[in-house]
Amino acid sequence: MTTLEFHSFLRSCLKKDEKLEEFILRCEYVSGQYEGTQGFTDLSIKLKQLEIENSINNRVFYFAIPPSIFIPVACAINNCARSQNGWTRVVVEKPFGRDLESAQQLSRQLATSFREEELFRIDHYLGKEMVQNLMVFRFSNSIFEPLWNRHHVKCVLITFKEDIGTDGRGGYFDNYGIIRDVMQNHILQIMALVAMEPPISSAARDVRDEKVKLLRSVAQLKLEDVVVGQYGPSKDQTKKGYLDDPTVPRGSITPTFATAVLHVNNARWAGTPFILKCGKALNERKAEVRIQFHAPATQLFTNQPQNELVIRVQPNEAIYWKFVSKKPGLSCDLEQTELDLTYHSRFEIKGGLPDAYERLILDVTRGDHNLFVRDDELEVAWQIFTPLLKQLEQKRIQPIIYEFGGRGPSESDLLLQKYNYSRNLDYFWKPTPKL
Fold first, then answer.
1. In the prediction, which pLDDT does 364 show?
2. Cα(352)–Cα(417) distance, integer angstroms
3. How many Cα atoms sit within 13 Å of 351 on the Cβ side?
4. Residue 414 CA from chain centroid, whole number
5. Which one of 186, 263, 294, 369 is the catalytic residue?
6. More confidently predicted of 60 and 66
7. Within 13 Å of residue 343, how many CA atoms lie on the same side as its CB?
């Protein structure tokens, strides 16, 4: 591909904008091979030609490449393409290994080429608007701190649901599965922000220190606290099952759905279950946090629904508090309603919310590590899930088959009931329309 062909490709992909042409003209295409150093030497020569008028030249390398070649590419960049008069930073996409051992090996090998402050392990969920708002919501509103503990919170449910299957990506997905692909990173990062202690400042080091302390407090996962599933065909047979994907190995037992209950052994959360739930080919696309509170000590009214704080990450970003109110009229009947902060109705958002990657790449150029995963944070995350993954694979635990487009295995609902999560089937939240 030539640079002109690359420009044409970009025009076909990007939204029309008054600065689009200005951006495209700043783009260059350099072809080369991952193996060896010649391609990276050619890249550096091209960069020097573009940088010739600058006194300081900074370089960001984004590893949107197979994990198997992270290390040779990192070595080649270090040897041939580092900036000589500015900083060099490397963005690494997940997966960061398959288990604790491979993650540690990857970290050690990357450390031979780049310092920790030069590495940005990107988890795009940390760049989402509502995940960003978790710290502000928790630590800028004094009403929540007295309630944010085991004395008031009955359980926490963090959910990630997709309404699509692997769609031809089964070959890649089958090497990892839903626990490695989503639970060990996206959902666990959200849990850490929900449950961590207040950091001494908003600086990246202080925030990540608290996340690591929280994750180190998580007890070892028990197999009886886990449900794994795999989607089959839809009820009407219009959607194929996971094993029908030609890129998926025959007889695969890789989970496409998982629910796991984590326990945090610290003074704030001891006894409060954190339920992590994620899956593909479910009935809807959404990601949210549900914090459910204990019932009042004295029950003056019968059939009283639970108070629940819901943080809707996507779609229809919102924060709403479910509480109980008297129905208008002469009776004393109760009804569950909500205090609702739906983003798109409350705020004037011109052009939509920033994309998660947009925010994160900007932070890379600023050198802000707040929304990126540190090496010890990655290690402790794998310490939580590696024993479970080994049990599932060594014992060849068969995933429970569930219908494409359903809610997932019924055993997952039973696990939630075991830990006293209450689901109100009579309540349906609707985003507040913009006035």
1. 93
2. 38
3. 5
4. 25
5. 186
6. 60
7. 16
Between vectors from CA 352 to CA 351 and to CA 354, what angle results, nearest 5°? 105
CA gap 36, 294 in Å, rounded: 60
Q: Mind listing the pLDDT tens digit for each residue in 17-40?
A: 788 888 888 888 988 888 888 889
Which tokens in the block code for residue 371?
A: 């929304």
Residue 18: exposed, middle, or buried by beta-carbon count in 10 A (0-12, 13-18, 19+)? Answer: exposed
| pLDDT of 403 above 90 | yes
pLDDT at residue 219, rounded to an integer: 94
The 10 Å Cβ neighbour count of residue 400 is 17
**Which class for 432: exposed (0-12), middle (13-18), buried (19 or more C-beta within 10 A)?**
middle
SS3 assignment, position 137:
helix
Active site residue 151: no
End-to-end CA distance of the chain: 49
Percentage of the chain lying above the pLDDT 70 cut: 96
Strand 119-122 with 88-93, pairing? parallel
- Count CB atoms within 10 A of the CB of residue 187: 24
What are φ and ψ of residue 173, in 5° steps?
-60, -35
The torsion angles phi and psi of 126, rounded to 5 degrees, stand at -70, -15
For position 159, what pLDDT does the model report?
95
3-state helix, strand, coil in the chain (%, to 5): 35, 20, 40
168 CB neighbour count, 10 Å cutoff = 12
pLDDT tens-digit series, residues 280-314: 999 999 999 999 999 887 777 777 778 899 999 88
Helix boundaries (H) for 260-409: 343-346, 356-366, 375-394
User: Which pTM was predicted?
Assistant: 0.90
- Which tokens hold the place of 46? 């091209």
